[in-house]
Amino acid sequence: MQDTLHSTIFVPDAPAPEEFTNAADAVERLIALYDLSARFLCDHFQAALANGDPGRRIRAFYPEITVTTKTHAQVDSRLSFGHVTQPGTHKTTVTRPDLFRNYLIQQIGLLLDNHGVPVTIGMSTTPMPVHFAVANDTELSVPQQGASDFVLRDVFDVPDLNTTNDDIMNGTFVPGEDGAGPLAPFTAQRVDYSLARLAHYTATDPSHFQNHVLFTNYQFYVSEFEAYARAQLADPDSGYTSFVSTGNAEITEADAPLPDSPKMPQMPTYHLKRADGGGITLVNIGVGPSNAKTATDHIAVLRPHAWVMVGHCAGLRNSQSLGDFVLAHAYLREDKVLDDDLPVWVPVPALAEIQIALEQAVVKETQLEGYDLKRVMRTGTVASVDNRNWELRDQAGPVQRLSQSRAIALDMESATIAANGFRFRVPYGTLLCVSDKPLHGELKLPGMASDFYKTQVARHLMIGIRAMEHLREMPLERIHSRKLRSFDETAFL
Predict the structure, then answer these.
(1) Range(s) for CATH 3.40.50.1580 in the chain?
(2) Tens digits of per-residue pLDDT, 433-491?
(3) How confident is the model over 291-335, as pLDDT tens digits?
(4) Separation of alpha carbons 422 and 343, rounded Å
(5) What is the rounded distance in angstroms from the CA atom of residue 413 to the CA atom of residue 216?
(6) What's the chain look like in SS3?
(7) d(CA 294, CA 197)
(8) Roughly how many angstroms between the first and final C-alpha of the chain, as a whole number?
(9) Which of 177, 254, 317, 345 has the highest CB neighbour count under 10 A?
(10) Using one digit for the tens of pLDDT, what is the confidence trace for 35-88?
């Protein structure tokens, strides 16, 4: 970044890059380096607010992981991750290594085991924006432009869109002058950006998010989720340790009160936690593909092991009844929000592991199986559109396309969530519940909706929970399979 006003740049003293052959030690160094940079920026930012322009640029950098391999020998591994695909240097910047400690130890450990070469930990050349450093200090906040006595950009680095993008995940990444390939799917700035957005949209800290995420498009599911969470907290053998509501309100006892949120966030989020992060997060994304994209864009940086949509849909077949389930095995994408990132010609396949988990959960909850299961669950194409009132338009075009696609259900979020799961290499699935049948005169009217929700919400949510608990027991190499990996992938999951 060119600096025409402050020619002097003040940076923290940092240790030289060092090689590590132990993953835990490498992560401890990452934590130390990150804390050094963040504290340096926070201290000097606080001083600048108190004393004015320091007369020089204040800069600190993200820590970085680098690995270099020199052989084309194929790695003998069942995993689709944990190794680089070709010899050379691969690196990634890192943020909040304290938050990602277990993930980093796991991924670095696989590198060490699979390649037998050390990783190098040191400072990168990517500046850390002051906004992201300050975000971790509850006593500091960045003032609006013009509110301080100095021009922020003249003194501190601010977020840079050149390093805050999805080029790696979208397959459009171009190596820099050093020719190094990416080691992880997201840069540090991209992760920091999403961590800040998650806190804003969900009103919960990213540290509470669990590895298994349920999305819904109705608030009705929240009270059922809280009731289930309280029952689990009352069971000492459940493995769940706490329940977190909006505003980061956390309880560890089944009968503990939860304060009401004075202002609900755009996407209310709730977390039933386990000590190992293997719990369940429920996100009410509301209605529409834009919300679905926003939520998954940001949750993806946390590298969850699975996300599943459990929402309501319009049933498109006369043979369906209100309350029936729909297991998506294909998606008709008319949501439009991801067309620039994932062209519509890219297939978004159903993932067998998720499909089986969802179907088995339906069997367990309904006590139906085989041919009898077809009475309450259909498997087929789910269409997602960007127009909530699509049925008020000329019917010829939309209905013809729906029929040609063999669609059996329609909503506004499922295809977006699945497509972003495909794009971000997060295993995904969809189990919807039919709440209306607009093509057959059964509209979602207040009286009908009330009775329907009372009888179906608890069962539907329970199916999603059971599916996630089944997936939790699945080995990582099964759920994170090669089906979601492209030709040239990052080593980190």
Answers:
(1) 203-476
(2) 998 776 555 556 565 555 665 677 889 999 999 999 999 999 988 898 888 988 889 99
(3) 999 999 999 999 999 999 998 998 888 888 888 999 999 999 999
(4) 12
(5) 9
(6) CCCCCCCCEECCCCCCCEEECCHHHHHHHHHHHHHHHHHHHHHHHHHHHHHCCCCCEECCEEEEEEEEECCCCCCCCCCCCCCCCCCEEEEEECCCCCCCHHHHHHHHHHHHHHHCCCEEEEEEEEECCHHHHHCCCCCCCCCCCCCCCCCHHHHECCCCHHHCCCHHHHCCCCCCCCCCEECCCCCHHHHHHHHHHHHHHHCCCHHHCCCEEEEECCCHHHHHHHHHHHHHHCCCCCCEEEEEEHHHEEECCCCCCCCCCCCCCCCCEEEEEECCCCCEEEEECCCCHHHHHHHHHHHHHHCCCEEEECCEEEECCCCCCCCCEEEEEEEEEECCCCCCCCCCCCCCCCCHHHHHHHHHHHHHHHCCCHHHHHHCEEEEEEEEECCCCHHHCCCHHHHHHHHHCCEEEEECCHHHHHHHHHHHCCCEEEEEEEEEEHHHCECCCHHHHHHHHHHHHHHHHHHHHHHHHHHHCCCHHHHCCHHHCCCCCCCCC
(7) 9
(8) 31
(9) 317
(10) 999 999 999 999 998 898 888 999 999 999 999 998 877 776 678 899 998 899
CATH among 3.20.170.30, 3.40.50.1580, 3.90.70.10, 3.40.50.960 for 203-476: 3.40.50.1580
Structure tokens of 49?
């607010």
CA distance 208 to 211: 10
Residues of the chain with CATH 3.30.1730.10: 9-197
Domain 9-197 has CATH 3.40.50.2300: no
Band (5; pLDDT cuts 50, 70, 90)? low
Place of tokens 């390093």: 163
Query: Distances from the Cα of 465 to the Cαs of 28, 160, 374, 409, in angstroms?
Result: 35, 39, 21, 22
Please give the distance of CA 376 from its chain centroid, rounded to a whole number.
31
Q: Tell me: the pLDDT tens digits for 80-116?
A: 899 998 899 999 999 999 999 999 999 999 999 999 9
